[in-house]
Amino acid sequence: MLTSEILKGDFLITTDKEKLDVPFIHRFLSTEAGWCDNIPLETVQKSIDNSLNFGLFHNDKQIGFARIITDYATIAYLGDVFILNEYRKQGLSKWLMEVVTNHPELQNLRRWMLITDTAPWLYEKFGFAKVKGSNLYMEKHFPNVYKKD
Known about the structure:
Strand content: 15-25%
Protein name: GNAT family N-acetyltransferase
Strand order of the largest sheet: 1-2-3-4-5-6
CATH architecture: 3-Layer(aba) Sandwich
Domain N-acetyltransferase: 12-149
Number of helices: 4
Organism: Galbibacter pacificus
InterPro entries: Acetyltransferase_Butenolide, Acyl_CoA_acyltransferase, GNAT_dom
Pfam families: Acetyltransf_7
CATH superfamily: Gcn5-related N-acetyltransferase (GNAT)
């Protein structure tokens, strides 16, 4: 798959895994995200290795991230979307979502999925809707999997 890079002023979104600051991503996910507290670095690295990743940078410093798990033909799961607090309210989350949803390898999919309780207003702008009735949504959820005893 080709790497894509999109510039907007001093900001860059890239799918180049080599440019990702994995310790930064791990630090945010394990201590600030809230949905995967204490996630091990090795788990974050493995998830990046097996996903289509979008790193958001400001002057070569990573400030955001999003990741897609997909077969590139029928389905995509959007996860681990974040932007550092000090860069929020600048339209960057909207731009990141535009880049993700318009990625050429992710067109004509039958289904996009995500789970969120933090920013449904953002994802609704890109056509995501709450699952009606939730009787179709099923999960095996282990919220404390990364917790150390």
